[in-house]
């Protein structure tokens, strides 16, 4: 399908080379194709097939079926040199789209509500440019089109499948289109940039009874309320105030009638933090609080805790390299956001644990066009003018790293 293309937004003070500017229409077509046919984690069959078909047309060697639906492609300069990897996630979310656009999702209950369709288009555009300009760099560039970032996580299975080997990857970069930043702005920071993601759930067991006779019960609703409030004290009173962390209970269920004290309650939530040294701390501290409150009321509990993703931690040298590339592309300092962080999580963290690298944010919000809804919102969309900027940033990272 050929989509109606918008008038390009004039991004202030961006330095994108002409051959990449010429890719703008193609980048939009790719992005909208992916957007119309969103697929959830490890189900990205149509997406992977379209990527593979495009890579074949571009005569770029690639291997499909990695970690079920992932693809690895390689652009070889033909000259000895280092190996840089570029990672793009390609899965969508279980969200029903509310945008009234001609490329809206055709898969009910599924939507690209986080920008992964744009990430995939940017990576394809970068591969196309580098394949046509192999004289501009040495060594090789690997492209990882990764499934299931939104869950249950595709980075680790791709690593286990050997994508970082044969030849060994020396470093990796990736970007996230980001509607918390104005279009054309880059947020970058060495060290932790995105948080660890951990999940907990707890079932409480007490004794139910009549709402007018609480002395005959062990009230799990009151107990769960006390626990939820007490958990907020972990960050407020157990952590150094200069350290960032979040403990959020997002679900609490108990009771079936207004005059019945329930005999059970269930709650679950998430923990986020930047400091890798906190690994294991919150699981222990949360259970200590649950156990103590349950004992004081005579209740029992069943507690489970899951470590989902570690923090995303950038290598300082690679962060400096990306910052240098961004400074050349953006030209003005006010469009470069140093020390940018978010307590959202990302499984890019597993790649960055394995090899040095940098994950950065590329602003994609444009309030004037109504393209500033937050990520995971049913009306999320972004300014497609940013797509060639993403390609330019990746190309400059390749040229700086591989020609150093």
Radius of gyration: 24 Å
The overall strand count is 16
Helix content: 25-40%
Class per helix and strand makeup: alpha/beta
Mean pLDDT, nearest integer? 96
Percent range for β-strand residues: 25-35%
Distance between the termini: 42 Å
Give the number of helices.
Answer: 10
Give the helices and strands as they follow along the chain: HHHEEEHEHEEEEEHEEEHEEHEHEH
Shape: elongated
Arrangement of strands in the largest sheet: 1-2-4-3-5-16-6-15
Instruction: Specify the biggest β-sheet.
Output: 8 strands, mixed
Stretches where pLDDT is under 50 for at least 5 consecutive residues are none
In short:
The protein has ten helices and 16 strands. It has 404 residues and is of the alpha/beta class. The strands form four sheets. The chain has an eight-stranded mixed β-sheet.
Name the descriptors.
elongated; 404 residues; single chain; four-stranded antiparallel beta sheet; 10 helices; alpha/beta; 16 strands; eight-stranded mixed beta sheet; 31% helix
Fold and architecture overview:
The chain has 404 residues and is of the alpha/beta class. It has ten helices and 16 strands. A hairpin with a 3-residue loop joins strand 1 (62-66) and strand 2 (70-76).
List the helices and strands and how they pair.
Layout: H1 18-21, H2 24-36, H3 45-57, E1 62-66, E2 70-76, E3 83-89, H4 116-132, E4 140-146, H5 155-160, E5 171-182, E6 186-188, E7 191-194, E8 196-205, E9 209-210, H6 220-238, E10 245-254, E11 260-261, E12 264-273, H7 281-297, E13 300-309, E14 312-314, H8 316-330, E15 336-338, H9 348-354, E16 357-365, H10 387-402
Parallel strand pairs: 3-4, 3-5, 5-16, 6-15
Antiparallel strand pairs: 1-2, 2-4, 6-16, 7-14, 8-12, 8-13, 9-11, 10-12
Helix pairs in contact: 2-4, 4-10, 6-7, 8-10
